[in-house]
Design brief:
CATH superfamily: AF0625-like
Order of helices and strands: EHEEHEH
Radius of gyration: 12 Å
Helix content: 25-40%
CATH architecture: 3-Layer(aba) Sandwich
Distance between the termini: 15 Å
Number of helices: 3
CATH topology: Rossmann fold
Shape: globular
Number of domains: 1
Length: about 100
């Protein structure tokens, strides 16, 4: 299962990777902030959006894309490791 993490903090990238890898998943981290961000998501099993680091337009376009291609999407207002764990649990349990 590949999970796309949108937003987040650059200095926590290795911690995100360790947590997702420990659960047996692959990660795709997207830190840039663009309305066309959904084009970089690709074929993933779930999307996690850290809304504190993503513009409203980018979050809106990602949500619209995820609904169109039926990808589970989870939003978190903070980009901490604890909130990442919670989001992964939601994706694993089918949102």
């Amino acid at each position: 299962m590949t999970i796309s993490v949108v937003g987040g903090k650059e200095h926590l990238k290795t911690h995100y990777e360790k947590e997702i890898k420990a659960r047996g998943h692959k990660m795709r981290l997207l830190l840039q902030n663009s309305r066309r961000l959904y084009k970089n998501v690709g074929n993933v099993s779930g999307i996690i959006i850290f809304t504190d680091n993503v513009s409203h337009n980018a979050a809106w376009s990602l949500t619209k894309h995820a609904k169109t291609v039926e990808i589970p999407i989870v939003r978190s207002s903070t980009s901490s490791i604890a909130s990442l764990k919670k989001c992964i649990n939601e994706i694993e349990n089918g949102c």
